[in-house]
């Protein structure tokens, strides 16, 4: 695939592990200058940063659930990158529980990280992108936000919220050549899915028409497409990367 990403800057939230880490690596392979960011996993983020192809990358702490950390992170990016072409809002958590047992703090933590974190980063990124009249934001949602799932009401609400947020902001900034889209993964092999009970994993796999678990790279490649000029007439959309789990 021909891309024009060479030399462009991108921030990937939660790029210390899983989908974010693979996305950071893949975007660096596409020639991008990548800001690798972490909340708790500094050592893992350092490993990812040190493994990136090319030059001009950044490594910094950025906790999306903390407005001060987000603002400080964007200050570094603005200073070091002198602007931002791409943002991948990938950082996300789960706190699964059936509604009647779901604690207020677990509902709030998931919304604060997945939805409000996306809002905080998008707001600061859009400011830079509108000024430059160029930019692309990719928000990582989930099949769960599309279908709902027993035991994941907080997570499903956060991801459906991100989709609606994406469409709304996409309408606000389209005239400035800034695009926003979502990638909605299905069942991808990372720490997040590794911690699911075996019977749940089996049940999900049984429902995937392609009969296999996705790899972080499957998501990373869709992200690269949405960041690149190959998708220049696409905004406010969601690409599902789910092996057919939801159509
Ligand atoms: P993961 O392996 O658990 O990794 C989560 C990443 O998010 C880590 O890098 C973590 O950073 C970061 N993170 C968590 N809280 C953060 C915070 N407050 N601020 C900044 N970073 C934070 O998860 P994953 O499977 O790669 O998931 C990545 C994204 O894909 C999430 O949005 C998830 O909802 C979505 N997704 C995943 C799947 C799947 O099957 N795996 C399916 C659908 C959607 P630290 O370790 O540094 O704290």
Topology overview:
Blueprint: E1 9-12, H1 18-29, E2 33-38, H2 42-51, E3 58-61, H3 67-81, E4 86-89, H4 104-132, E5 135-140, H5 143-147, H6 153-173, E6 178-185, H7 191-194, H8 198-207, H9 216-227, E7 238-241
Parallel strand pairs: 1-2, 1-4, 2-3, 4-5, 5-6, 6-7
Helix pairs in contact: 1-9, 3-4, 4-6
Bound molecules: NADP nicotinamide-adenine-dinucleotide phosphate.
What does this structure look like?
By secondary structure, this protein is of the alpha/beta class. It has one domain: NAD(P)-binding Rossmann-like Domain (Rossmann fold, 3-Layer(aba) Sandwich), CATH 3.40.50. Helix content is 48%, strand content 15%. It has a 7-stranded parallel beta sheet with strand order 3-2-1-4-5-6-7, sandwiched between helices. Strand 1 (9-12), helix 1 and strand 2 form a beta-alpha-beta unit. Helix 3 (67-81) packs parallel to helix 4. The longest helix is centred in the middle third of the chain and has 29 residues, at 104-132. It is globular. The structure holds NADP nicotinamide-adenine-dinucleotide phosphate. NADP nicotinamide-adenine-dinucleotide phosphate is lined by residues 13-14, 16-20, 38-41, 63-65, 90-93, 113, 140, 142, 185, 187-188, 190-193.
């Amino acid at each position: 695939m021909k891309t024009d990403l060479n030399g462009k800057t991108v921030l990937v939230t939660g790029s210390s592990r899983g989908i974010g880490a693979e996305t950071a690596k893949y975007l660096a392979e596409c020639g991008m200058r990548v800001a690798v960011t972490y909340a708790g996993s500094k050592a893992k983020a350092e490993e990812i940063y040190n493994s990136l192809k090319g030059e001009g990358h950044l490594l910094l702490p950025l906790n999306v659930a903390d407005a001060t950390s987000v603002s400080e992170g964007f200050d570094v990016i603005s200073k070091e990158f002198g602007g931002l072409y791409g943002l991948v809002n990938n950082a996300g958590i789960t706190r699964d529980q059936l509604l009647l047992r779901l604690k207020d703090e677990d509902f709030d933590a998931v919304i604060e990280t997945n939805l409000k974190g996306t809002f905080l980063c998008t707001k600061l990124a859009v400011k830079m992108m509108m000024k430059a009249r160029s930019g692309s934001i990719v928000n990582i949602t989930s099949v769960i936000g599309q279908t709902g799932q027993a035991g994941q009401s907080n997570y499903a609400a956060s991801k459906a919220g991100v989709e609606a947020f994406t469409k709304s902001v996409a309408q606000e900034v389209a005239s400035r050549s800034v695009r926003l889209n979502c990638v909605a993964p299905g069942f991808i092999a990372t720490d997040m899915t590794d911690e699911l009970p075996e019977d749940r994993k089996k049940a999900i796999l049984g429902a995937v028409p392609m009969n296999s678990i996705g790899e972080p790279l499957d998501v990373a490649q869709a992200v690269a497409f949405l960041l690149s000029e190959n998708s220049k007439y696409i905004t406010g959309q969601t690409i599902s990367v789910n092996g057919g789990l939801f159509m």
